[in-house]
# Entry
Amino acid sequence: MKQSEKNRNLKVPSVMYCLGSSPLSAIAQLISCPVDSQDTDGCADKFFVIEGTFFADDVFSPDTKAWHYHEWCKSENSVESRLQVMDGTTLQDIELRLGFPYLYKHGRIGCEHFVVFSDVRLLHAEDELDLTRYPRLISDLPALAPVCEICSGKSRWQVKNSKRLPQQVNYLCDACNELFNFNSAGALIEPELVLLPVVAGGRETFNLEQDDDE
# Structure
């Protein structure tokens, strides 16, 4: 298989320039994803996994995903794991491998992104020399909608408060949403269900209000 065929489905949604003094928390703030704007309950559960260390917002609460995965790793004798606060940890504090895909995970549903550090060099005269402007986003493609969690197609609906789906927040396409959440009369199977349209780029969401008589 040609290299171009292997990589044709890979997309780089954003590229940023960072300094060695750039904290991981500032880098996380520049990673754009629709999940962030659609997690309306203010969930801030996010972390990086870099060289066996979980860098998280909160390393003291056992309710966070980072704590859960870290404890799981410790229970496996063959897996070494550490937990460290993201804020205040800079790139120069970490031993990185260029070109290696590290994990960034965030949001109530645990959305995952690969983060790759591709180059290390000194600042040039052509670079932005105002160090307060780093990390800085160089390119940012429109954010893609999450995939449907049943058929892996393009999602159209964010589903909350479902007792039959595995997560507190789930994403479904039109067809799966209709088949899974509505009965033959067109009424919601779970009356307490909250449905929000997914907008590409994650910039808007609207409540779907159902009449009580439906």
Summary: Residues 1-9, 201-214 have pLDDT under 50 and may be disordered. The helical segments are 3-6, 24-30, 34-38, 65-75, 174-181. The first helix runs from residue 3 to 6.
